[in-house]
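Budget justification aside, the reviewers requested a transparent look at the raw inputs and outputs of the sequence design task funded under Objective 1. We therefore reproduce one unedited record. The lines immediately below are the structure tokens for a 114-residue chain.
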């Protein structure tokens, strides 16, 4: 936990954010600035700065996060497909320094990204 990290604060429930999924280890909520009809963020409750900071000891947690993304995609009815994005670091376009998986779907997505 980090006192002033936005996503740690969301995970602690400081903003009464609606969680679509919550376990002891993770939380999922809708992105405030959605880029697709479905745009959900899945985060670990533990403060991990980015994918680049994930450790071997986080292996189980990483699996939980990915399975949560899959479950949410099913719940959202994204049977036509979806995209999972983990922006990492400066060149990756990461703007919040707490690991998060974007789940994007509900429209045909373009490739490659910018
Ligand atoms: P990044 O650019 O780090 O990959 O993604 C950060 C995401 O967090 C952005 O898509 C942004 O819209 C979202 N975001 C930033 N602040 C908030 C917030 O306070 N609440 C929610 N729900 N999403 C946020
Ligand atoms: Zn954090």
């Amino acid at each position: 936990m980090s006192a002033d990290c936005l996503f740690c604060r969301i995970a602690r429930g400081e903003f009464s954010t609606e969680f679509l999924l919550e376990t002891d280890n993770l939380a999922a909520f809708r992105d405030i600035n959605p880029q697709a009809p479905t745009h959900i963020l899945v985060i670990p409750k533990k403060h991990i700065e980015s994918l680049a900071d994930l450790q071997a000891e986080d292996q189980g947690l990483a699996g939980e996060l990915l399975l949560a993304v899959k479950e949410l995609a099913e719940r959202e009815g994204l049977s036509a497909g979806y995209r999972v994005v983990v922006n990492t670091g400066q060149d990756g376009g990461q703007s919040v320094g707490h690991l998060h998986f974007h789940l994007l779907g509900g429209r045909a997505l373009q490739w490659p990204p910018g």
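The chain has one domain: 6-105. The mean pLDDT is 97. Computational costs for records of this kind are itemized in the attached budget.
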